[in-house]
Amino acid sequence: MLGLKGKTVFISGASSGIGKASAEAFAMAGARLILCARSIDKITALAEKLKEHYETESIVIKLDVRDRSAVEEAIDTLPEEWKKIDILLNNAGGALGLEKLHEGDPSDWDTMIDTNIKGLLYLTRKIVPLMLKYQLKGHVVNIGSIAGIAAYPNGAVYCATKAAVHCLSDGLRMDLVDKPIRVTNIQPGMTETNFSNVRFHGDEKKAAAVYAGIKPLTSDDIADIVIYATSAPEHVQICEVTVTPTNQATGGVVYKKNS
C-alpha cells in the first residue's frame, strides 16, 4: 500500500458499493482521487468524509459514463496536474431485469450495454493515452463479473456485457504489452451492494431474497482485491481475479442453507 501514496486514481461509479469502498481504501493508502458518478451529492459527501479522515485530495465530477461527449469533456477539462492519472478503476455498471431473453426490456439492454461496455470503453480511450503521454506506470482495473465467464438463466444480456469486459481486458493487456501499464479484470460473484436493488428496479423484497441463506461478499472484500492488485510490485501484473462467497461455485451453482 505504500506504493499507492500520492498516486492519482480515477474511479467511476464512486457513489456507492465497490466504487465507494475502493475510494475509501485508496484514501487510506494515501492516494488522491477523481470521483465520478451520476449523483454529485453522494460523491461530494464522500470526498468531504475522506478529506476529514485521511486529508485526501479529491475532485468530484457529475458524470454519466454512457454519454461519450460528457466523458470526453470531463477528462479534457481536468486541471493539468490531475491528468496524470496513475490508476483507472472502471467500476460503473450494473444489471437490469431478470427475464428470459425473448421477454426482456430493450431499454434495459441499452442501459447495460451503454454503461457496462461503452462507458468502460469511453473512459479507457481517454485515460490510457494520458498514461502514455505522461509516461506513467499506469494500471487499468475493470470490475467484471463471474457472469462474464458463463451465462446463467434469465441474465443473458448482462452476462454478455461482462463477457465483453473480460475480452476487452484481455485485448487491452495485449495492446499494452510493450508498455508499463498493467490491466486487471476482477470478477466477483455474489456481492451485496445495491446491485440487486437496481436489477429489480427498487424492489427491496426481491433484492433481499437474492442473498437469503448465504453470506455474500461485501464491497470491502472487492476493494481489498483492488488494493492488492494495484499495490503489487511493478513487475507483477494480476491479470484476472475471480472471487466468490465460499458457498458459490459458479454464477449458477450456489448453496443456500434455507433452500
In short:
It is built from eight helices and seven strands. With 259 residues, the protein is α/β, with parallel strands linked by helices. Helix 4 links the parallel strand 4 (87-90) and strand 5.
Please provide a written account of the structure.
This protein has 259 residues and is of the alpha/beta class. The chain has one domain (2-243): Rossmann fold. The chain has eight helices and seven strands; from the N terminus they run βαβαβαβαβαβαααβ. The chain has a seven-stranded parallel β-sheet, sandwiched between helices. The longest helix is centred in the middle third of the chain and has 28 residues, at 106-133. The chain is globular. The N and C termini lie far apart (41 Å). 41% of the residues are buried.
Keywords:
Rossmann fold, seven-stranded parallel β-sheet, 259 residues, alpha/beta
* CATH-defined superfamily: NAD(P)-binding Rossmann-like Domain
Q: What is the string of SSEs from the N terminus onward?
A: EHEHEHEHEHEHHHE
The CATH class: Alpha Beta
**Cα-atom radius of gyration:** 18 Å
In terms of DSSP E residues, the strand content is 5-15%
List strands and helices in order, with pairings:
Elements: E1 8-11, H1 17-28, E2 32-37, H2 40-54, E3 58-62, H3 68-76, E4 87-90, H4 106-133, E5 139-143, H5 156-175, E6 182-188, H6 195-199, H7 204-210, H8 219-230, E7 240-243
Parallel strand pairs: 1-2, 1-4, 2-3, 4-5, 5-6, 6-7
